[in-house]
Amino acid sequence: MVATSEYILCEIQNGVLVITINRPDKLNALNKQTIEELHETLVEAENESDIRAIILTGAGQKAFVAGADIAEFANFSVEEGKQLSSIGHFKVFNFIENYSKPVIAAVNGFALGGGLELAMACHIRVVSDNAKMGLPEVSLGVIPGYGGTQRLAQLVGKGKAFEMIVTADMINATDAYKWGLANYVTTQEELLNKCFEITAKISTKSPTAIKTAIKVINAGYNTKLNGFEVEIEEFGKSFGTKDFKEGVSAFLEKRKSNFRGE
Ligand code: COA
Q: For atom 29 of ligand 1, which residue has the closest CA?
């Protein structure tokens, strides 16, 4: 059962789980406990077939997530730094990127450092017009450690990624949209509605096909795999699913499909 914990609020609406990172007094900075709770929530939600998509946002009006918790890592050693990064990758950032259901980031304010990295690990980003996004790590003498060096370049291209990372500059929502970092920009009031508009479309589609599509799109960014070969393989496998039989029957019978994710 998906449940609220100390730093993670959970609410299910029409088959969509809204996860709110809830540390507003620290601008929702990601400490170890938040990473852990977020991971547990995602694991629970993966097993609930009624949940078709996830919206991830931050509590309050000011921040999505203002980064990893600087106070917590201030005295870390080289080994602890490495561990912080690898646990984060494994439990949250790679975990979300490879999740079986679409995850939409509702970026409601500052998305800095680990906050922007979290938004970039999501499959879709909807950004409110007050948002400020950046990877300011070099200001602290570190580099982005939750996938930012890789995913920013994938989303905005190498040139803009270099610029954002080495200058540590924040960009606004308009530029984020222009550069492909934001799928949509809305007012803060409309942010969740825009996300629900997207999830409403997702919810009527085949969960098995969506899960496979996420896997295959990601395969193209995995240097150890050939995305086209994975696509051929997975395309073939789709023909063996009940969702495929249902989708095709519904089309031929001129009715709405009723996918069960099987
Ligand atoms: N880690 C830990 N605490 C953080 C934090 C972070 N990444 N970001 C903000 N906070 C805390 C502040 O320390 C402050 O706590 P306090 O009230 O106990 O002192 C609280 O959140 C509010 O932040 P504050 O800095 O007072 O707000 P602001 O409006 O003046 O500035 C920011 C907002 C986002 C510009 C500023 O908080 C900031 O630069 N944060 C760090 C961003 C960053 O470098 N992230 C990458 C980390 S790797």
A: 62
Distance from residue 248's CA to the centre of ligand 1 (Å): 52
Q: Mutation test of ligand 1: which of 26, 72, 137, 142 has the most ligand atoms closer than 8 Å to its C-beta?
A: 26
pLDDT 10s digits, 194-216: 999 999 999 999 999 999 999 99
List the Cα angle 210/185/59 in 5-degree steps. 85
Q: Please tell me the pTM assigned to this model.
A: 0.97
CA–CA distance, 133 with 219 (Å, rounded to integer): 27
b/e 133-144 (16+ beta carbons within 10 angstroms → b): bbbbbeeeebeb
Is the model's pLDDT at 34 over the cut of 90? yes
CB 59 within 8 A of CB 108: no
Looking at residues 148-162, what average pLDDT do you find? 97
Clarify whether 253 is annotated catalytic: no
Residue 1 pLDDT > 90: no
**Active-site residue, 117 included:** yes
For residue 66, report the distance from its CA to the centre of ligand 1, in Å: 6
* 93 DSSP assignment: I
Q: For the structural domain made of 8-202, what CATH number should be given?
A: 3.90.226.10
- Give me the mean pLDDT over the 71-81 stretch: 96
Among 44, 48, 137, 190, the active-site one is 137
